Amino acid sequence: MDSSSSSEPRAVCLVSGGMDSAVALAHARAAGFATFALTVAYGQRHVCELDAAARVARALGAREQRVVSVDLRALGGSALTDELAVPKDRAGHEIGRGVPTTYVPARNTVFLAIALGYAEVVGARAIFLGINAIDYSGYPDCRPEFLAAFQKLATLATAAGAERGEPLELHAPLVLLSKREIVLRGRELGVDFALTHSCYDPQLRGERWLSCGRCDACQLRLEGFRAAGLVDPLEYA
Amino acid sequence: MDSSSSSEPRAVCLVSGGMDSAVALAHARAAGFATFALTVAYGQRHVCELDAAARVARALGAREQRVVSVDLRALGGSALTDELAVPKDRAGHEIGRGVPTTYVPARNTVFLAIALGYAEVVGARAIFLGINAIDYSGYPDCRPEFLAAFQKLATLATAAGAERGEPLELHAPLVLLSKREIVLRGRELGVDFALTHSCYDPQLRGERWLSCGRCDACQLRLEGFRAAGLVDPLEYA
Q1: Contact at CB, B156 and A149, closer than 8 angstroms
Q2: Which CATH class name applies to B10-194?
């Protein structure tokens, strides 16, 4: 499905399997980058996220996809990687009130650091990631100030930046968008949302993974589709 | 061997098993920090580095040690993690001439990002690392500008920094030291260099790992001991 040519500038795109990173990947492609998809396996509990990331990378024409494992479980400290229950039906209490319990310490810093390494290897001077306004209301490492600081660091950290002064550009095309706007943008860009996965607590029904419809991620996703006047193509339990 | 009390400030110390990080860990302890040793297993080819890291953390009184695996081999791009030969007997050609081939893309950025996550989990507001003048002559992500940029990023990236404005301090106590000075500093601080490991290409003799004495790491180490007028306690092949 690679539709890129060798003369195009290269971008590393963080692809999680979720809808936001899928839309960010489609953005990079539409902006004329040859895309190199990076999926960081950080101790997610559900292999279906990794499967979704591979499907998304293939469908959206990434030149290649690499999966890098980092065992952030060894650090503990989050409901997403610890063996703790994921908070549910608590949208009114949980979303938008300080740092959520699903926060993985320094997750975006770790992801971007690995993306920086990948960018060096493939000669990319751009990194795309799908963080957005919903995220940065709760997670400190999703805010624009953080992104600006990382871009500065990345330029100093790399051989290309250190030796030839080439800046490394960090693109977060969804950073000011709501979930509703992300859904609409994805539709414009031809993203097949049926390939993506958002649920923190999916359930196996036969051979298919169904989304729970109740965790924060499902609630945000469903609300985004509702607000956009569209139907989420995923199956819910 | 934990000699720290609960009232001491906490520091995460990156401990690789090499002599530099051992001296940095001893520095943190001498400065009054309760130390939390972090070893990043990034696809090193030799388990003896990880063994050395555990020995060093224990001997120098770390409160705990965590080992986090990150598979940087999935990115390729370095003689240290690829299945390539390590450059040898090329000190005159290799050391101090631009970025060495043993450079692992974005390695320090990845290590510091993981250290930042660990610091958040244990409530540390300081990170120690053992990079030094020898390193930053060749590796872009060892330079003081890089460290300053990371400290700024780290403060913005964390919940404590974002919510309560608490800075995260990055300490690189060896940053201006030569290998000779590191050897002398380590001796002052009581570091047992026999516990450390530096060689990129060790050889198994019976049940003991011997250092090759020829790779860049061995040459720098041996030269440091020679210049300090001391004998390296390690066994060489």
Answers
A1: yes
A2: alpha beta
